[in-house]
Amino acid sequence: MKKPVDAHCHLCFKYFKGEEDEVVERSRKKVLRVYDCGATPGTARRTLELAERFEGFVFSTIGLHPPRAPRMQQSVIDDVVRIIREHADRIAAIGEIGLDYHYVKEPGERRRMREVFERFLKLAEELDKPVVIHARDAEEHALEVLEDYDVVAMFHCYDGPAELARRIADAGHYVSLSTIHVIRGPKDERTRELLETVPLEAALTETDSPYLSPVRGERNEPRNVWRVIELLARVKGVPVGEVVETTARNALEFYDL
């Protein structure tokens, strides 16, 4: 493979509205495929539209953004579950789902967030789908919850401890490295330790676009996943081509379309 995969982005979000053709055209030149995440009922429907429109290049994942889950009406959560069930044959994974202790502090809301998380994990088991995990300041707890479910997970935009990343990989899951590490750069001790520690065989690459742009003043786009590839190759001291080949293969195996 000569092109990398953007394992997680949000083309379906409003920031790209009306510009999808141009963004995809730029991305096709640089990227093998992108996995677009819908995290609300509206964006879930939108990502399915984009996957149909750009068939073979854009693939959909659908979940529910964890920080919103505790205060979200049950009917909205039910709607997302219904969309996943109705379109299970068209989605690559369930997610992003998970736990967020950075924004959600209140114990009752955290319990509710976990309930929603586990509902989607049960759904993933039932539908035999991989899961895309959002875990912020809750990476270890999310891994503990996963132990009770027969699913394969990708820890999207991973920014937790390096040692925990190794445990995630040892458990058979994947660690997705994003453009946030490009922003910090190889001189950042935490970034360097993480990228050195994550086994290449368990690594994925993503932009999380439109967020986390490595270019000041510009919106992030899937084509910028090359920045992550180049940084990972530099830190690990391996050829860029090896990183492209391995991470792209990992993504295709994880999503297993």
TrEMBL record:
Instruction: Name a Pfam family for this protein.
Output: TatD_DNase
Membrane-spanning residues where?
A: none
* List of residues binding a divalent metal cation 1: H8, H10, E96, D208
Keywords assigned by UniProt, alphabetized: Hydrolase, Metal-binding
Q: Give binding positions for a divalent metal cation 2.
A: H134, H156
Q: Which GO terms describe its molecular function?
A: DNA nuclease activity; hydrolase activity, acting on ester bonds; metal ion binding
Quote the InterPro entries the UniProt record gives.
DNase_TatD-rel_CS, Metal_Hydrolase, TatD-like, TatD/YcfH-like
Keyword Hydrolase in record: yes
Q: Which NCBIfam families match?
A: YchF/TatD family DNA exonuclease
Q: What is this protein called?
A: TatD family hydrolase
The species this protein belongs to is Methanopyrus kandleri
